[in-house]
Amino acid sequence: MIEPMPELADVSKLATDVSALLKVMAHPLRLKILFVLLDGEKTVGWLEQNLDKPQAQISHHLAKLRFDDLVCCRRSGRLAYYRIGHPHALLLVTQLLRMFPEQEGE
């Protein structure tokens, strides 16, 4: 069921908030990070190996995602474990995977 249309002032704030979330998620590597974090916590080393990107690049994008509260970090000894930390990001990334399923043969 579709929600009733909010008031114009509420729509303006909503548009600003959603735009900010989408802007952070708009980078392909950030989306890849969020996609793999759907399966649970990952370390920078795991992301580096599995996404085939240098550690500095992974760390840069994780810092941006952390700054905007889309991911959070748990430390255990020398390792940092990252996971999706924002419920809206979790819902949106899940929906994106449903909207764009893998195509066979690609």
Spatial strand sequence of the major β-sheet: 1-3-2
| Shape descriptor | elongated
Helix content percent band? 55-70%
Gyration radius over CA = 16 Å
Number of strands: 3
Q: What's the helix and strand layout?
A:
Layout lengths: L7 H18 L2 H10 L4 E2 H8 L3 H13 L3 E6 L2 E6 L2 H13 L7
Antiparallel strand pairs: 1-3, 2-3
Structure notes:
The chain is α+β, with helices and mostly antiparallel strands and 106 residues long. It has a domain at 28-98: Winged helix-like DNA-binding domain superfamily/Winged helix DNA-binding domain (Arc Repressor Mutant, subunit A). The protein is 58% helix and 13% strand. It is built from five helices and three strands. It has helices at 8-25, 28-37, 44-51, 55-67, 87-99; strands spanning 42-43, 71-76, 79-84. A three-stranded antiparallel β-sheet has the order 1-3-2. A hairpin with a 2-residue loop joins strand 2 and strand 3. It is elongated. The mean pLDDT is 89.
Features:
alpha+beta, Arc Repressor Mutant, subunit A, three-stranded antiparallel β-sheet, 3 strands
